[in-house]
Design brief:
single chain; alpha+beta; Alpha-Beta Plaits; 4 strands; about 25% helix
């Protein structure tokens, strides 16, 4: 079975980000990074779990994570 998609969870400051991460884990979200300085959590989950994560207190958004490639500085634009 292929791995679940990666997601970026944006949080607000209504509760500690560690509590939000714990609740996401209980839902089945595989938390990879908790970035408290910017209020974001990244990880993997099924689309159904990601949809449920949107209803967790302290979560403002859940979006798919997509790779970004800006290329080398000397590359044509």
């Amino acid at each position: 079975m292929p791995p679940h998609p990666r997601w970026i969870v944006t949080t607000d400051d209504s509760r500690p980000i560690g509590q939000v991460a714990t609740e996401l884990r209980r839902l089945g979200f595989r938390v990879e990074n908790v970035m408290s300085a910017i209020g974001s959590i990244t990880g993997q989950a099924s689309p159904a779990v990601a949809a449920s994560a949107r209803h967790v207190a302290g979560v403002t958004d859940v979006e798919p994570d997509a790779p970004i490639d800006i290329g080398p500085p000397e590359a044509d634009q």
